């Protein structure tokens, strides 16, 4: 799909930036998160993936009050499609930058200005394709570490990613057949394979709520943490890890082996400590099989 942009320069912090927030059954605090983000960017676009009538009414009220554009997909089309809808809208608006967010992420004061400054002063220059902030888990009060490699970050988390529009023009959009999970992994590896760099900055912190984490202790010491994702999310996670590994194993063997190690650890944690483990194990294994068979798209 050919992409084009008519963006000009930025006159003040936040100008030229379109923030994209993807929602799917958002909680009642979603409007407050939008309120914190809205003053920091020129445009804010919310792409909803089939929330309920009550949830949509709350979103409509919040977006109308805060001059936020709301795009209603009407059904769950997946995170990749929703992100692409937002990116294409940013292109139509002539933006220079897109800033991607999950619905449960909240910016801190000066977040966008810090991200833009870090991008402008990066020693990587035009090689820098994605800049991510530092992350802090809201529920646990702990930092969420990034995986670093010699030339930056191994793979970016979608939420909080600052990406120049030119990157999408040159390297395309997100892979919609992944639907949800590993969409960010695939795009990161695609860019790194093309010689681009992903970097983290300490100039901005994003408050994030991944999964439903629970710390498991023994004798007062934290032994491990479980994410407690739903069976369907487990399906997509494992299927898409296999899909990514099949395509990038020879380019990024260490990263792909880490994905398989993460899968083994997650399966063990499900068996040991998570609830509804039989269903989760079944979906986990089904995802792996479908990944090997290249059965992609939305799970029926």
Measure the end-to-end span: 27 Å
Helix run count: 9
Secondary-structure element sequence?
EHEHEHEEHEEEEEHHEEEHHH
What is the overall silhouette? globular
Spatial ordering of strands, largest sheet: 3-2-1-4-10
Q: Could you estimate the helical fraction of the residues in percent?
A: 25-40%
Unreliable spans are 4-10
Strand elements, count: 13
Q: What structural category do the secondary elements indicate?
A: alpha/beta
Mean of the pLDDT scores?
90
Major sheet attributes: 5 strands, mixed
Instruction: Please compute the radius of gyration using only Cα atoms.
Output: 19 Å
Estimate what percentage of residues fall within beta strands.
15-25%
Explain what you see.
The protein has 300 residues and is an alpha/beta fold. The chain is built from 9 helices and 13 strands. It has helices at residues 30-37, 53-65, 79-92, 111-120, 165-171, 183-193, 231-248, 253-273, 277-292, and strands at residues 17-23, 43-48, 69-72, 97-102, 106-107, 128-137, 142-144, 148-149, 152-153, 162-164, 197-208, 214-218, 221-226. A 5-stranded mixed sheet has the order 3-2-1-4-10, sandwiched between helices. A 4-stranded mixed sheet has the order 5-11-6-7. Strand 1, helix 1 (30-37) and strand 2 (43-48) form a beta-alpha-beta unit. Helix 1 (30-37) packs parallel to helix 2 (53-65), helix 7 (231-248) runs antiparallel to helix 8 and helix 8 packs antiparallel against helix 9. The model is unreliable at 4-10 (pLDDT under 50).
